[in-house]
């Protein structure tokens, strides 16, 4: 366990994923510039270190355009921009990312996404090969170095763009995935390996495995946990909030929502389904870990639930097995951001500026 305080990040629902009642669309919570910007500024006001800006195609609004806009509306919070490998030619993407880093005065971090491109699916092996090639070229260019790379998907000999990041170095790459191809990619190319909700023992196993994989190629990784949460003044109120959140959800609607995402058939998503299947009758996989959110969400499908002391203790349990960063969210996102900020975050040590 690191002795340094963790990074605590929030989530801006750019991909049509904000609800008062899970699975029931609310026009007031739709992914618009205004609503998602309000989530980010709420997170900054509450003292979060970073905010994830997720990427979709059919869902919501464009993450990169949003990051450029919100960079000028914020002052302290870092921006964790999700970028899908293969959508832009790497030199152009490097220039775009360096520009956004400049616009944010050096607050850009990068979430590498390796799922299929819209309308252009690839098997896992070549898809992750493309991702590794993109990550290599991006890192070189964002480090301000000329690139000479000849791969299966990228062949380029080029000087770096004139625009440089504020630090002159590549921002940290956050990356997640549970297939062997994904884990191999993380081991050789990521800075922060992101895992989805799991039992504390399950997270410990993932951290141990990925440390070994990185060590085998002479590298070290930081580790992040992406999870939802529900915190209330009392345990009973938190339990009532779980029931209320899914009180208007039917199984067919939930299945349709889960199927919308490009990664809905991934190994990681199947693991979340297995966690949900193993839960008790109230949806808890273990004390404080509720899987009900996964009934209507592809991807991270469980929430840390409890009163402030219980939530803080659960986060500390994950810290004890190697988690360095938390990317959190809750429904509705602004309301839960305020609750966590006031009830938990204010009394937690965390990193004002965090670098791997």
Explain how this protein is built:
The protein is α/β, with parallel strands linked by helices and 356 residues long. The protein has a domain at 7-229 and 322-347: TIM Barrel (Alpha-Beta Barrel). It contains 11 helices and 13 strands. β1, α1 (33-45) and β2 form a beta-alpha-beta unit. 48% of the residues are buried. The mean pLDDT is 92.
Helix content range of the residues, please? 25-40%
For this structure, the quaternary state is single chain
Low-confidence stretches: none
How much strand? 15-25%
Question: N-to-C terminal Cα separation, in Å?
Answer: 15 Å
Structural class, by secondary structure, is: alpha/beta
User: Which fold name is given in CATH as the topology of the domain at 7-229 and 322-347?
Assistant: TIM Barrel
Number of strands: 13
The CATH architecture of the domain at 7-229 and 322-347 can be named as Alpha-Beta Barrel
Global shape = globular
User: What is the CA-based Rg, rounded?
Assistant: 19 Å
Q: According to CATH, what is the class of the domain at 7-229 and 322-347?
A: Alpha Beta
Question: Features of this protein?
Answer:
alpha/beta; single chain; 38% helix; two-stranded antiparallel sheet; TIM Barrel; 356 residues; 8-stranded parallel β-barrel
């Amino acid at each position: 366990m690191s002795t340094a305080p963790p990074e605590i990040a929030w989530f801006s629902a750019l991909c049509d994923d904000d609800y008062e009642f899970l699975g029931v669309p609310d026009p007031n919570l739709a992914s618009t510039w205004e609503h998602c910007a309000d989530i980010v500024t709420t997170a900054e006001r509450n003292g979060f270190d970073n905010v994830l800006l997720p990427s979709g195609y059919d869902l919501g609004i464009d993450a990169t355009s949003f990051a450029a806009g919100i960079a000028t509306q914020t002052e302290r919070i870092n921006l964790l921009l999700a970028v899908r490998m293969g959508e832009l030619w790497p030199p152009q993407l490097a220039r775009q990312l360096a520009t956004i880093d400049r616009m944010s005065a050096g607050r850009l971090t990068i979430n590498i996404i390796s799922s299929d491109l819209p309308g252009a699916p690839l098997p896992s092996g070549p898809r992750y090969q493309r991702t590794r090639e993109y990550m290599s070229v991006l890192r070189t260019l964002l480090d301000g170095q000329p690139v000479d790379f000849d791969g299966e998907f990228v062949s380029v000999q080029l000087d770096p763009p004139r625009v440089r990041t504020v630090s002159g170095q590549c921002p940290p790459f956050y990356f997640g995935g549970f297939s062997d191809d994904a884990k191999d990619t993380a081991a050789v190319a990521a800075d922060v390996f992101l895992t989805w909700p799991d039992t504390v023992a399950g997270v410990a196993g993932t951290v141990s495995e990925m440390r070994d994989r990185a060590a085998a190629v002479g590298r070290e990784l930081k580790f992040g946990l992406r999870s939802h949460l529900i915190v209330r003044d009392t345990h009973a109120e938190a339990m009532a909030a779980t029931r209320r959140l899914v009180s208007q959800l039917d199984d067919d609607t939930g299945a349709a929502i889960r199927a919308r995402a490009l990664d809905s058939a991934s190994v990681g998503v199947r693991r979340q389904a297995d966690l949900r299947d193993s839960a008790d009758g109230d949806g808890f996989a273990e004390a404080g870990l509720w899987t009900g959110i996964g009934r209507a969400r592809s991807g991270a499908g469980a929430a840390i639930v409890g009163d402030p002391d219980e939530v803080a203790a659960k986060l500390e349990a994950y810290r004890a097995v190697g988690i360095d960063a938390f990317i959190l969210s809750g429904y509705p996102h602004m309301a839960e951001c305020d609750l966590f900020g006031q009830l938990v975050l204010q009394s937690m040590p965390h990193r004002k500026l965090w670098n791997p």
